[in-house]
């Protein structure tokens, strides 16, 4: 497999490459399969302390170390590290960039291959197959096997990471001692699909997108992707969080009653959103955004089982920790309760907590001591049980 | 004043033109001032039965008759007509296109004028002044005077129309016997400002916008405006309404598990949103959208009064009818309650109703019998009181 041909600064990601590739839900196969990943802590002799962390839509494998493109701290340093809920002194943490992502795993910006696995000298772009959350999980399963781990102590993830945790438990129950789906749902709601569609429409509307072949012109659809990020970012916050952060404060010396003929960014919240949008495009690929949002939209664990979510978990040996946040309107508590009801109906071992927070969906990434205590306690209990 | 120079099909709107123009909150004056309007019913001999209807962000003066560009029914035909809550057999209804709009009133697509009121042979575009909700109300006041009406029986409006109803009562209390602000707030929230900013960013990102001078190239920023409409439309609906309308239904014969390399519009909700976006651009001007969303964002009745909303209404002779809808998350009931609390603190005459509905913000435009009975009853009581 030759080097990626993306317009991004090249990073020498740590990767496992599987020459035989992966069969996808859509019926296509993709070969070779590359899975970029990072690990933290040490695998014990019994190989029983491995915890897989699954990242969200725009996350990556750099969980607890600086991001190689932005230099910003890892996205879950509040949770992962020595003495933290995902204690790297006790557990061996693995996080892989999802299939379809843009941080080294096989995805739209990596080199396209033919059926024989030969590189075609151009990125997949929009020819990248239509993938599902289960395809992402299957790719992670290959990595876990590659690392010599027969059973994971736990699979943990928030948002789209939580979808993966659910899919892991549904697809590979014997491989998952415990699953912690956080701030997530067993299907993507009509409203969430609609917000994704706005983001995709913004990318499609950007002439720099070039029908997905933007590498040919050497540009990226930065403005479209930026608008997509802006609208998504609003859904990650609560009204309270936005109000606390910005309220209706005006920026600097702008004056809405003044004789300005045209104003941009007069409210601080606007400046903040534009900043969020413009920094995002430096680290994320637009075609990956299209691919991964679609995978989320397709996610519906019950649909393939005649609408019976409990059927996904009947007889499961996995223990579950389900957590939601009271002000999360993207994945509201009601959707976590639906998961818990199905797990109860499947007679699964499940604990559920709704964390009172006014920080919205983003709360799972932030400093939420009650959440950290609950997650850490659940994992420690599982580890004690396994003698880790 | 010469004909407008917009890229739209030209419509011969009914207009009142005021050569002396209007002084604006920003310090500029604009002359001449054109106010396009429609009336329904007959003004009685005492001139005491006039009801002003204020339209929302993307509304217009065609309340109860087909839209001249789209041919669709008037936007409030469920409420306005013979025997309806705004009974055209009893009341004389007036609705004006707002200042800054694009259906005949002075706005960004109309011909720019200099300080002496001379036409400059090009549209205002982004040189149109920065306007406020109060400027819109002042323009309507000129129309009401022009029609020979000293006091309105009522000012009624939903969403941005409700902001105007509140501003009317605050600015011209002696001219407003009754005010009905519906599904609205006394200020625009940080979240609502943020959603507007996404829409504006999408318009700015469209290269066809041309820095606002799109008339020069003869095009319109259709894709940017369409994305703006899509995101706004989601905020007008509730999750329940979206789910009931579309759920997760896939369109036609598309198949997410099939070997499709790239899919658009696979969910019905996406097709619907794209349709909403693409039809909107046929009737609405992008620079108007920028101007009017800004005016909404600036709206904060309490801010100019040291944060004391009650000060806007102290001693008011106006009767108020405040209505909200339980599933409206754009203007939630809490914001209507804040208005009611301020009116109570100002010892005003106020009635409040929260209508139970799962239709979201759009409920005020739809068939909601409880709402229609409440609004109709309030207005009839006011009319009885005035002997109309």
UniProtKB/TrEMBL annotation, chains A, B:
Alphabetized UniProt keyword annotations: Acyltransferase, Amino-acid biosynthesis, Cytoplasm, Methionine biosynthesis, Transferase
Active site positions = 159, 328, 361
Q: Where in the cell is it found?
A: Cytoplasm
Give the CC-aspect GO terms: cytoplasm
Where does this protein chiefly localize? cytoplasm
Q: Known InterPro entries for this protein?
A: AB_hydrolase_1, AB_hydrolase_fold, HAT_MetX-like
Instruction: Provide the AB hydrolase-1 domain boundaries.
Output: 49-366
Q: Which Pfam families match?
A: Abhydrolase_1 (PF00561)
Where do the annotations place substrate binding? Answer: 229, 362
A single MF term (Gene Ontology)? homoserine O-acetyltransferase activity
- GO biological process entries: homoserine metabolic process; methionine biosynthetic process
Q: Which domain of life is it from?
A: Bacteria
Q: In which pathway does it act?
A: Amino-acid biosynthesis; L-methionine biosynthesis via de novo pathway; O-acetyl-L-homoserine from L-homoserine: step 1/1
Q: Which PANTHER family match?
A: HOMOSERINE O-ACETYLTRANSFERASE
**Subunit comment:** Homodimer.
Q: Which family does it belong to?
A: Belongs to the AB hydrolase superfamily. MetX family.
Function, in words: Transfers an acetyl group from acetyl-CoA to L-homoserine, forming acetyl-L-homoserine.
Task: Specify the protein name.
Answer: Homoserine O-acetyltransferase
Q: Which organism is it from?
A: Roseicella frigidaeris
